[in-house]
Specification:
The protein is α+β, with helices and mostly antiparallel strands and about 525 residues long. Among the domains are: about 150 residues, Resolvase, N-terminal catalytic domain (Rossmann fold, 3-Layer(aba) Sandwich), CATH 3.40.50; about 55 residues, no CATH class; about 130 residues, 3-Layer(aba) Sandwich (Trna Endonuclease, Chain: A, domain 1), CATH 3.40.1350. The chain contains 16 helices and 21 strands. The strands form 6 sheets. It has a 6-stranded mixed beta sheet, covered by helices on one side. A hairpin with a 3-residue loop joins strand 14 and strand 15. It is globular. The relative contact order is 0.05.
């Protein structure tokens, strides 16, 4: 939302304010209808008590605070400050979370630093500290930034878990119904209320959405597609051409393509299966395609419009296409597509006649990214962290074995509790091993984000920080349970003494102090 000027001239009897300020307000959803008004009211009381004149307002309505993307007013505010056209000396914000719930607290600090560098101070009006640059202010502000980001992370986990439970109960979570199906609204007792049109959403929190069969003519088309593919031996391209020649369009009103027919043939919703979490886009970060083993499924949740045997036969035929080809043949075919198109994606692969499906490439080579790398293609988005995480999961048993061997070499009795994945040492305390990926910043600094398992909190958590290449351990931290105050912790190369007091270059000292000491029994 664009900014607007405020012209509230004081009366002659009033003292002329000496400080000009801009206010920034933000609400994250349209449901928070009066949030920005409440923020503005508190900001104006703060300004009036300090002789500050508010000359400009920047407001982001219904915008998430996870990033600056989509927050046009904050972007305009920063641009005005950097360009020198800002006609104010202060920026008033309700609290730290309204400035943003950035997942990296440094990003929040960076935007504030831009303002401070230009001589413009930010004041958080509802906070219990003055943003005056003092050590205590800096500490409180850093803590508040971390809490703001943590709130969004915790909310994301809770929302994801809730959505997963709804999927398992057979309810639809977002997305169009697809050709031949309709989204139907039901109440909390399962009674049908209405069929939702495109773009329509439920209005009551207790209502739910399920998939139901669409018009008979569309159902007949879906079934004919499966029959033509399985029994008549027609390809997706042939089926698409036949549908287009009959004037039949997709649910989006577009002509059929090989890819749209292929998606119809592989989607389990046509046999009533409810499948979710194929892709993730959590906390406004990069969209990733998840491995099938972490998909959330609810078989036979909806009324099927295609027989299960017919659907399974179609999947077998699609899978057989890739089994007829060797790895080298599949990669060569993919290379030809890459050279002709200049880029690759799952949609491009599915649209190519005679080429195995994108799911076949993902299954054969572990992931589409792995297949892309074999033909020399690197997507703009960086998904290398997925490969790093897989490598660290494979490394975990080796690290665990080294710790067990080191403890036993010093005389300790140590074994792994397979149920909790914790190490029990001398029957006296439990130990958990956490391997943390190194994430370099754009400036070359190393950062580590630790996530503690607070549900099965061990007595001691051994954190193994990996080096910049994520191939070798960089150092180690030993955190006692009593000193773990948060589920997540962010570490730099050098940290405050309160953290680095737990740091070790090697584990020899830990093995020694964990070893049992025998005392002579007194007579």
């Amino acid at each position: 939302m664009a900014s607007w000027d405020k012209e509230e001239a004081p009366s002659d009897a009033e003292q002329q304010p000496t400080v000009r300020a801009a206010e920034y307000v933000r609400m994250s959803t349209d449901h928070q209808k009066y949030s920005t008004e409440n923020q503005a009211d508190a900001i104006r009381h703060y300004a009036a008590s300090r002789g500050i004149e508010i000359v400009r307002t920047y407001a982001d309505d219904g915008k998430s605070g996870l990033s600056i993307d989509g927050r046009a007013s904050l972007q305009r505010l920063i641009a005005d400050v950097e360009s020198g056209v800002a006609d104010f000396e202060m920026i008033l914000v309700y609290d730290v979370s309204r400035w943003g719930r950035f997942q990296d607290a440094d990003e929040s600090a960076y935007y504030e630093y831009i303002c401070r560098r230009a001589g413009i101070q930010i004041a958080y009006c509802a906070e219990q500290f003055e943003n005056d640059g003092s050590p205590m202010s800096t500490m409180f502000k850093g803590f508040k930034r971390a809490m703001a980001g943590e709130y969004s992370r915790e909310l994301s986990v809770k929302v994801f878990a809730g959505q997963g439970r709804l999927i398992e109960k057979g309810y639809r979570q977002g997305g169009p119904a697809g050709f031949g199906l309709r989204r139907t609204l039901i109440d909390e007792h399962g009674n049908t209320k209405a069929v939702l049109g495109r773009g329509e959403q439920k209005s009551l929190q207790t209502d739910r959405v399920i998939l139901t069969p669409g018009p008979e003519e569309e159902i007949a088309v879906v079934r004919s597609v499966y029959v033509a593919f399985v029994h008549d031996g027609l390809s997706e391209r042939d089926i698409a051409d036949d549908l287009n020649s009959k004037g039949i369009v997709t649910d989006l009103g577009r002509p059929w393509t090989r890819g749209t027919v292929h998606q119809l043939l592989i989607n389990g919703k046509y046999v009533g299966d409810n499948v979710w979490n194929r892709q993730s886009f959590k906390l406004k970060k990069k969209r990733v395609r998840n491995d099938p083993e972490i998909w959330i499924r609810s078989p036979s949740a909806f009324e099927a419009i295609v027989e299960r045997d017919l659907f399974d036969a179609a999947q077998a035929l699609i899978g057989a296409r890739s089994f007829r080809l060797s790895d080298a043949e599949m990669i060569e075919a993919l290379r030809i597509v890459y050279e002709s198109k200049g880029l690759l994606s799952g949609i491009i692969i599915d649209e190519c006649e005679g080429l195995p499906s994108s799911s076949a490439y993902s299954s054969r080579f572990g992931s589409l990214l792995r297949a892309y790398s074999l033909v020399g293609y690197s997507p703009d988005r960086d998904y290398r962290y997925l490969a790093v995480n897989r490598a660290l999961r494979r490394l975990h048993p080796d690290i665990l074995r080294q710790v067990l061997d080191g403890l036993k070499a010093q005389g300790s009795e140590a074994w792994q509790d397979v149920e909790t994945d914790r190490v029990i040492v001398n029957g006296e305390f439990s130990l958990s091993v956490v391997i943390v990926r190194c994430t370099p910043t754009p400036t070359g600094l190393m950062r580590w984000k630790i996530r503690f398992d607070t549900s099965k909190m061990p007595d001691i958590t051994l954190v193994v920080r990996m080096d910049a290449s994520n191939r070798q351990p960089f150092d180690y931290y030993l955190f006692p349970r009593l000193d773990v105050a948060a589920e997540r912790l962010r570490l730099a190369e050098d940290n405050d003494l309160l953290l680095d007091a737990y740091r070790f270059d090697a584990l020899d000292f830990f093995y020694e102090i964990a070893a049992p000491v025998r005392f002579a029994e007194a007579a």
